[in-house]
Amino acid sequence: MTTPLTLRPISTQQHRDLIASRSSASFLQTPGWASVKAEWRSESIGWFRGSELVGAGLVLYRQLPKVRRYLAYLPEGPVIDWSDDDLGSWLAPMVAHLKAQGAFAVRMGPPVVTRRWSAEQVKAGIADDSVRRLGDVPPLERTKDGACVIAQLHELGWQQQTAEGGFSAGQPQFNFQVPLVDDEGRPRTEDEVLKGMNQLWRRNIKKADKAGVEVALGDRTDLKAFHDLYVHTAERDHFTPRPLSYFETMYDALAAEDPGRIQVWLARHEGDLVASTIGIRVGTHAWYSYGASSTEKREVRGSNAVQWAMMRHALDAGAHVYDLRGITETLDADDPHVGLIQFKVGTGGEAVEHAGEWDLPLNRAIYKAFQLYLARRGARA
After folding, report:
1. Which of 4, 56, 85, 361 is buried most, with the most CB atoms less than 10 Å from its CB?
2. Quick one: what percent of the chain has pLDDT higher than 90?
3. What topology is assigned to 181-319 in CATH?
4. Per UniProt, which keywords does this protein have (predicted)?
């Protein structure tokens, strides 16, 4: 008979050790991420089978205005065995613990892939006037693990979330990723990754090299240069930038756990900063997290050059996937978000759908008030 799972708070070091023992986990589930989200109360929890730590989660508690009750949020987590066909044995002790901590609801994002589409399929979908969303395109793969997780969560009373709200922090359900290993798990070569890109991407990488664009791996002192360009990008592309202090806190928190976990990249042309990015890696998973580019000198293709440098660095570090993070589901050629999708599709990777975020209301009256609060915030925005 299998020893039943128990759950209790764990130390930061125990949490770090569990993450380190896995091939990869989301950086949003590392204990260091709690320092980045300091406005949320945080807790590391661990699942034990007997005395063995077999799973972990970073819980962020966000207080509901005027009420001492909390949304307990586990972004892109927890880090448990999602292939288990008895997820209730994992989730029941977590829910009981969080309820005792004053949670009126639990929100989590199972890090489980449900569907995949090739770059060619996404490109064809954008070109097809009858296709409006990625879901309209038959996927290259529907995963059994993904289907099993979704079926079990429905049975256990969890509710899949579709609306986005600032309070929820909503992580993207659709990402674009470049596999860095082949179907047999063997590392791909730089040449193989390059050949997988479309002609425009390969041409732009060559153009940047010929123009003399130099890409360098920076350090904490380069965050100010990144941020100045990022604010310029925000003004041009009409989004609200995060303050420099946010990136300094992120760098300090993640670098403290692993010196190679977070990187600042800078692409310069004749001394001018033309592109800059922030990359993150946990185990075999590497992410492109934030990017900035200058309006001037766009013809030297600094953005392509810095992405290629990041991919090569991820390959050298033994990463299995290079993750360009979120894309919207829209494939409507007239949608302004399509330009970002087309930029990412050019890398020759694949569009990946995850299980998304799921809520379990523990106090239905407060949860309903919470949903109304989010709806009002959305209307004001």
Report:
1. 56
2. 86
3. Aminopeptidase (3.40.630)
4. Acyltransferase, Cell shape, Cell wall biogenesis/degradation, Peptidoglycan synthesis, Transferase
3-state secondary structure of 247: helix
Q: Tell me, yes or no, if the two domains 1-109+357-381 and 181-319 fold the same way.
A: yes
H or E segment and range at residue 268: strand 262-269
Task: Spell out the domain ranges in the chain.
Answer: 1-109+357-381, 181-319
Q: Which tens digit of pLDDT belongs to each residue from 93-105?
A: 999 999 999 999 9
Question: 301 is written with which tokens?
Answer: 């293709």
**Using CA atoms, how far apart are residues 45 and 176, in angstroms rounded to an integer?**
30
Q: What are 216-260's pLDDT values in tens digits?
A: 999 999 999 999 999 999 999 999 999 999 999 999 999 999 999
Asked if 222 and 248 count as a contact pair (C-beta separation under 8 A), the reply is no
Q: How far is CA 146 from the centre of its chain?
A: 17
Reported for 242-249, long-range contacts at CB under 8 A and 24+ positions apart, including other chains, are 246/36, 247/223, 247/278, 247/290, 248/220, 248/223, 249/35, 249/36, 249/38
Rounded distance between C-alpha atoms, residue 224 and residue 245, angstroms:
10
Residue with tokens 């001037």: 296
